[in-house]
Amino acid sequence: MLRSLRLKRLLQFNGKTLYNVSRLLRSEPTKLTTVESENESEAKLEKKSMSKAMKAYLERAQAHDEFMKQQNYEFQIGKRHLANMMGENPETFTQDDVDRAIEYLFPSGLYEKRARPIMKPPEEVFPKRKAAEFDETGRPHHFLFYTGKSNYFNLLYDIVEHINNLNKYEDSMLNKNSYPDPNTKLQLDGYQWMDKEALENVLIEKIIDKEYTNFVNAIERLYNHPYSYRIKEFILKYRKPLMSQKSTSDLPKLQYDSDGRSYVTVYECLRKRARGHVTIRAPGSGIISINGKDLMYFEDTQPREQVIFPLIFTKMLNKVDVEAYVEGGGPSGQAGAIRWGISWGLRSFVDDKIIESMRIAGLLTRDYRTRERKKPGQAGARRKFTWKKR
Amino acid sequence: MFKKPRYIFRYNKNPKSLITSFQCLTTAALPTERIDSFRCVINNPLEQNEGHIGQFYRVPEDVVSKLFSQGGLPKSFRIQTKTFAETCLMIRKPSIDIINCIKNLDFSKPVPRFVLYGQKGVGKSLSLAHIVHYGYEAGFLLVHIPWLGEWMRRPKDSSPSETKEGYTNINLDIASWLVHFKNQNSLLLEKANLKTTQTYKWTKREETVANSNLMDLVDHGINRIKFASDCVLALLNEIKQLSKSGKCKTLVAIDGFNAFFYPETRIRTEKKEIVHPHNVSVTEGFLSLTRFDWKNAVAVLIVDELAIAEKDQTSYFPRYLLGKDGFEHLDPFIPVLVNGYSNKEFLSCMNYYRERRWVQPLPGLDDELSVISSSNPYKLMQLCAPL
Questions:
Q1: Domain residues for B133?
Q2: In sequence order, what DSSP letters do the residues of A97-113 get, joined into one string?
Q3: What domain count does chain A have?
Q4: Are strands A191-193 and A239-241 parallel, antiparallel or unpaired?
Q5: Residues B44 and B138 in one domain
Q6: Is position A27 within any domain?
Q7: pLDDT band at B50 (very low <50, low <70, confident <90, very high)
Q8: What's A304's domain CATH number?
Q9: Is A367 a member of any domain?
């Protein structure tokens, strides 16, 4: 009786003592049964009901571990085989080499990259699993366990806590009569919030669209706080650089011709069936030549506007000379190709901010659309013949 | 008071509905007579010089109705002048150059021939209009064909000539040209003592006797359309004689002159055969006026791609457009290239449009328009219409 009381009191303690309790339980049931038989059934029932979920989890975890071990072993063997096939040293064979070898051995014409054959470490291929969320007694570790999405709501909780802390800090600063400096405000242009899928991977939880927007709203609010720079680390964890940030780093270097003018040539400017190359020279006076003619090469206004749009957008109209050669396709395609070439080449002449705005304006995006083929049994690509009853 | 009409103006670009709204605008805009850099204070072509290049001068309404009521200003430009409630021509280098040449000309020497050429829409016809206006003010007898393409490409009628075997008459067009000629030269024909040198017998009962007024010849052509072509031939012959004898100075101005040498006209005989321009009866007369074998005259001609069939519009150079015959006919002549707007002219034109409330003042508009239009005046006019 005394013991059971002690037990009960112990059980009310926090997680640290739980380990001892379990030891007690494991070592003493025989004694318990012998000393006080009336409590026997109660304790057994308690133990049995407590361990059921845990037991199932442990079994699953063990099976998963074994499976992963096996997969890992097979992956290592496979990698060595692959290295031998490629005639390279298996010890120094890296994942990059694996990818290259797979691409070489199993060439695939599939458009979707994720549909092509891969060989990745099993950790990347098989989704991560959550660790045990409850102890052997069935008590959840996490205080938000019963929300069903503990990591997600914990994240929201953290964000709000950060906001509160910053507000407190702001108040204290206001008391000292000091205001936030706008220059130190967190500037994360060229970044965007982690998308839903990536967030799910981080949280190891599935979330719905509404929950994702809630997250974005919350963190946006945190980000816009004048003192948000104090928790830059936290915010950056959920911010991802935009695609082009990488590509801007490998801008083509300016070359110099015999007159000492800088120039950049963009090859492979493609749009529809047109292809061409564009040379941009600076300093210039706004001379545009297309296949040796001036802008009147295009008879209509629309393609002419297309060609000069990037120049107007970057305010470089009278500062650079453009020389373009295009062939194939029609006026619209040719103008589109030149427009892309000019935009792509202008990146070397303007600063990052303008490049970023050009990207947002869609000037740096290659337009991959082409004519859709006509289908037999139809009037055109999509259009059907006129329906006639008979 | 000023803003309201402007509002009406912006949304009523249809010239017909504009006139009413314009009357209140013009009263507000014109009497101030601001001297803008793009407006020329001197409206008389006799006094204009190189310093005025790029500026607009206003052609008085009575002169416009006299000189250009039957053509001479391109249609799209005429519509615009109606909208703007004034006829303003830009003083441009080719026209001012030619005018200066004419001013310093020794009229006792053989006739010089100026040939204006240039791409489509650069303002050749309006340069000619400027020169015609100068000729009018300077007291020249004007022999002005507003657009030869009208005769060769879009004839109103055709009939075989009765006087000359194998020739074709386009009498309706010629008669309306006679009206044009009469309009342009009515003052001169009344004032100056221009008499015919020989008797022309039209029918048994009709004749124009020698030493009668030149106006009689013109009137006869207008009243008896059947004889219009013959009248014109006689008239041109008389003009040549009169100039030679020093009784008058003549300005020959022909727009689309190369149509005289382009073999495919749209004039057809009764057998539906295409008529060569040299077989059109009046051609001979006008060609004789563009020869150098007379004096006291000057010829200003335009060679234009638009005067020939579309399939052959590949080059705007005189040698191509005139062909071998035409080139030899005119040789030696003074070619005058008409270019698109220079920067100064472009700016002046845009300022003019802005003053007329035709385009809205927007930042960066000029740069964009100048590139898109390639400084081609006609293209610019088209682009500005919906702005």
A1: 109-337
A2: HHHHHHHHHS----SSG
A3: 3
A4: antiparallel
A5: no
A6: no
A7: confident
A8: 3.30.230.10
A9: no
Q: Inspect the interface and report whether the beta carbons of B371 and A294 lie closer than 8 Å.
A: no
Tokens of A327: 């062939």
* Full domain range(s) for residue A41: 36-128
Q: Please check whether residue A288 touches B, CB under 8 A.
A: yes
- Residues A111 and A154 grouped into a single domain: no
The answer to whether B72 touches B144, Cβ cutoff 8 Å, is: yes
How many CB contacts within 8 angstroms connect chain A with chain B? 23
When scoring A308, A316, A339 by the number of chain B Cβ atoms within 10 A, the one with the most, hence best to mutate, is A308
**What band does A51 get if pLDDT is binned at 50, 70 and 90?**
low
Contacts of A301 in chain B (CB under 8 A): 372, 383
| Domain stops at, among B337, B354, B374 | B337
**Do the Cβ atoms of A308 and B364 come within 8 Å?**
no
At A48 the pLDDT is 52
- Give the residue from B263, B257, B249 showing the smallest Cα distance to B115: B257
Query: How confident is residue A15, by pLDDT bands cut at 50, 70 and 90?
Result: very low
**Selection from A349, A220, A227 nearest residue A279 by Cα:** A349
Residues of B with CB under 8 A from a CB of A: 364, 367-368, 371-372, 374, 376, 383
Q: For residue A274, what are the β-bridge partners?
A: A271
Residue A312 is nearest to which of B368, B374, B383, comparing CB atoms?
A: B368
DSSP state of B276: P
Our measurement of the distance from residue B56's CA atom to the centroid of its chain's CA atoms, rounded to an integer in Å, reads: 18
Banded model confidence at residue B42, pLDDT cuts 50, 70, 90: confident
Residue A338: CB atoms within 10 A of its CB come to 30
- CA pair distance B358, B10, nearest whole angstrom: 8
Does residue B326 share a domain with residue B203?
Answer: yes
Whether residue A262 contacts residue A281, with contact meaning beta carbons closer than 8 Å, is answered with yes
Token pair belonging to B303: 């060679």
Considering the domain architecture, whether residues B280 and B301 belong to the same structural domain is answered as yes
Same domain, residue pair B246 and B260? yes
Which of A289, A298, A300, A304 to mutate against chain B (most B CBs within 10 Å)?
Answer: A304
Q: Are residues A220 and A198 in the same domain?
A: yes
User: DSSP assignment, residue A319?
Assistant: T
Question: How many structural domains is chain B composed of?
Answer: 2
Over the stretch A328-363, which tens digit does the pLDDT of each residue have? 999 999 999 999 999 999 988 888 888 888 988 999
| Alpha-carbon gap: A316 to the closest alpha carbon of chain B (Å) | 11
User: Are residues B223 and B120 part of one domain?
Assistant: yes
**Residue A349 forms part of a structural domain:** yes
Whether chain B has a CB inside 8 Å of the CB on A198: the answer is: no
Cis status, amide bond into A310, omega within 30 of 0: no
> A294 vs B374: CB contact, 8 Å cut-off?
yes
Predicted complex ipTM? 0.74
B104 inside domain = no
Bridge partners, residue B89, by sequence = B57
Residue A348 DSSP one-character state: T
Residue B43 has pLDDT above 90, yes or no: no
Whether residue B100 lies inside any domain: the answer is no
In this complex, do A312 and B383 lie within 8 Å of one another by their Cβ atoms? Answer: no
Q: Quick one: B148 and B188 in the same domain?
A: yes
In a domain, A332, yes or no: yes
Which residues of chain A are within 8 Å of residue B372 when distances are taken between CB atoms?
295, 301, 304-305, 308
Q: Do B368 and A317 touch (CB under 8 A)?
A: yes
DSSP H helices in chain B: 3-11, 15-29, 61-68, 75-84, 93-103, 124-137, 149-152, 171-191, 214-223, 228-244, 283-289, 318-330, 343-355, 365-372, 377-384
Q: Same domain, yes or no, for B73 and B206?
A: no
Q: Which of A155-164, A196-205, B26-35, B190-199 is most confident? A: A155-164
Question: Of A54, A60, A12, A6, which is closest to residue A28 (Cα–Cα)?
Answer: A6
B372–A301 C-beta distance less than 8 A: yes
